[in-house]
Each structure stands twice: as structure tokens, then as C-alpha cells.
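Hey Z.,

So I finally got round to the 5-O-phosphono-beta-D-ribofuranosylamine thing we talked about over coffee. Here's the setup:
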Amino acid sequence: MKRIAIFASGSGSNFQSIVDSVKKGQLDAEVALLVCDKPGAFVIERAQNENIPSFIFSPRNYEDKAAFEREILKELQARDIDFIVLAGYMRLIGPTLLQAFSNRIVNIHPSLLPAFPGKDAIGQAFRAGVKVTGVTIHYVDEGMDTGPIIAQRAVDVLDDDSRETLQQRIQACEHELYPLVIQKLLSTVMA
Ligand code: GRF
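And the result:
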């Protein structure tokens, strides 16, 4: 069975949906590690509740990105991780991890890329007044939300949407789509 590491910085609702899919038998993988760059993030509590080990670090305690990515890499190797899933990890991945996990790192982004990359994609779409936005899952490269697209799903922006109601529907879409796409990747290109 493939062993995945999830990288997250925040609330971890996508972390939870992936773990729940494993528990329901819909995703044939083991979530073997949480990597978190924000001590105190709620996702850490979620990992504890699920008995999933975590590597938590503060980037400011390291000289540079390469230094903390070397530590992450040691953890990944010690736990035989096959595949990295970014779920709200608010940092660019550097060459240390990209080279070691070439084509084995994916990310989810709450817009139809290449529209609205970067921070607050939902707010960006809302303010732009688009009528359709959505969710993108893509391979990770050195850029900001730029790697090859794997899957997308559209979400309509309704006339009476607020930023919050739009966010709720986009997140519900993420929670459904991400586990499905991970399962598909693990059973095809990663098999
Ligand atoms: C998600 O909207 C994801 O698309 C983006 O960051 C958010 C993370 O949310 N990259 P959560 O921590 O999984 O709740």
C-alpha cells in the first residue's frame, strides 16, 4: 500500500477528508505523516486525534529553505513515503524536495488555474465577478500554482453568494475531488 505524507499549514479540512476516505476504504493508501510549518495549526490536532505522526517545524529556526527541506526529507525517507500531497501548505517547494519526489508531489488550489493563482484565490475570483470558478489539482513544480494540471472541477458563483458561501461550496468540492484524484493517481501512474 502506498504511503502518503500530507503537508498543511492551517485548518486541515482537506487533510481530514483524505484521512476519512482512507477510513471508509475509498482511498487505498496510508496517511503516514503530517508535515506542518505552523506550530499551533489546527491540522496538528486532527493528526493527533487520528494517531498520525507529525513533523512540525518553524522555518525561522533554519538558515534557509534547503535546510528545513533536508530535515523534512529525512522524515519522509525514514517513513518510506511514496507520495506527497499538499493541502493548504502555504510555501513554495524547493529543489531539495522537488528532486527527491519528482512527479510525486501534488497540490490543490481553489480556482480554475491558470486563473487566480497565489493567495486568496476565492476572494480574487469573488472580487473579479466571475460566474464560474472551481478547484484545480496539479503536479507541483518550482512555481506558484503552475505545475501540469491533473484535474479540475467547476463551481458556479451564484447571484446571492457571499465570499463565505462561495468558499463553503468550493471547499466541499475540494473534499470530494482530492481523495478521488489521489486514488486514481495511486492506482495508475504511481502504481
Ligand atoms: C484549500 O482551499 C486549498 O485549496 C488551499 O488551501 C486551503 C486549505 O484548507 N491550497 P484546509 O486547511 O484543507 O481546510
